[in-house]
Specification:
Blueprint (H helix, E strand, L loop, with lengths): L13 E11 L1 H7 L16 E9 L11 E5 L8 E5 L3 E3 L6 H21 L7 E4 L5 H12 L3 E6 L2 H9 L4 E4 L5 H8 L4 E6 L5 H7 L1 E9 L12 H7 L2 E4 L2 H7 L1 H17 L6 E6 L3 H9 L6 E5 L3
Parallel strand pairs: 6-7, 6-9, 7-8, 9-10, 10-11, 12-13
Antiparallel strand pairs: 1-2, 1-4, 1-13, 2-3, 3-5
């Protein structure tokens, strides 16, 4: 059931946006379930990622004007016809990029690129294993690892997801529901992965770590499986691997120079048409709860979006 709220008013440094498309991310599911690391006071409007047009700007905002096409993020409130966002959280939509692509791009592609470029420092020729490779962050990581010149192994569950990974350019795939993940990683990579990007967690994380070569980098991005794995530290010792974490919410605060560089490079790729998010499912605003359930049940292929305005 939808409820009516007053039209929001932008304060100092804020922008009011008419939302055209919102994107669903796994943290939205966690916030609704009160399972996110930072709880959200209730009541709140879900949704953190959106694209649309500027309606009004608050005092002190000079970078945007009414009519500008923008995309961005907020802590909550994106699943609505209008949203107020800090101007610093908005980016102008490049020419030739639609609202749907813009709404679906920011969170997953920034997460994947920061993990690959800044945290793992992937180099051309590296073997990169992407867990949950058919999901939003996973497909973005496949796209971007290929652009960085890496050799990509896409690990996913089931034939439909494996087929999508191949369609998006992955030449090496593993269905970890039917194959031995550790063994197949070592076979495909001739001795082990240099990098593992893991937005899933759960029972497969340890097997992926066991499939790494000495001195590799394992990046924990999230726990979409719902289970936070416990990694035996003896594996870290024996393999000489480095286990790192990426929290997209605070990355810009902790590594501002890397964040600015990564975002600039990403925007060049988006503007040039070199990368585009895969839209696996669309919902209406009335069906926002169903969209959240769709993501919570791990049925998403790529990004799930909510069409809000015309």
């Amino acid at each position: 059931m939808l409820e009516k709220f007053p039209v929001p008013v932008p304060g100092t440094g804020e922008v009011l946006v008419d939302v055209r498309v919102a994107a669903v991310n796994f943290p939205d599911v966690l916030l609704v379930a009160n399972a996110y690391q930072v709880p959200m006071p209730v009541p709140f409007v879900p949704g953190s990622e959106f694209a649309g047009h500027v309606v009004a700007v608050g005092e002190g905002v000079s970078a945007f004007a009414p009519g500008d096409g923008v995309f961005g993020t907020v802590a909550s409130g994106a699943f609505a016809e209008q949203v107020v966002a800090p101007a610093g959280q908005l980016t102008r939509i490049p020419n030739g990029v639609g609202h749907t692509e813009a709404a679906a791009f920011g969170v997953t592609y920034r997460t994947a690129y920061h993990a690959l470029r800044s945290v793992a420092q992937v180099r051309a020729g590296d073997w990169v294993v992407v867990m949950g490779a058919a999901g939003g962050v996973g497909l973005a990581a496949v796209d971007l690892a290929l652009r960085l010149g890496a050799q990509v192994v896409a690990a996913a569950s089931g034939p439909e997801k494996i087929a999508l990974c191949r369609e998006r350019g992955a030449t090496h795939v593993i269905d970890y529901t039917t194959e031995d993940l550790r063994l197949r990683i070592r076979e495909l990579t001739s001795g082990g992965a240099h990098v593992v990007i893991d937005p899933v967690g759960g029972q497969w994380s340890e097997q992926a770590l066991r499939g790494m070569r000495w001195g590799g980098v394992f990046v924990a991005v999230g726990f979409a499986s719902g289970t936070i794995p416990a990694i035996p530290l003896n594996l870290v010792l024996l393999k000489g691997v480095t286990v790192k974490g990426l929290e997209i919410r605070t990355f810009g605060e902790r590594a501002p120079e890397q964040e600015q560089r990564d975002v600039a490079e990403l925007m060049e790729l988006l503007a040039a048409g070199s990368v585009r998010p895969h839209i696996g499912a669309r919902f209406t605003l009335d069906d926002s709860a169903a969209a959240l359930r769709f993501v919570a049940d791990r049925r998403a292929l790529g990004k799930v979006v909510i069409d809000i305005g015309s």
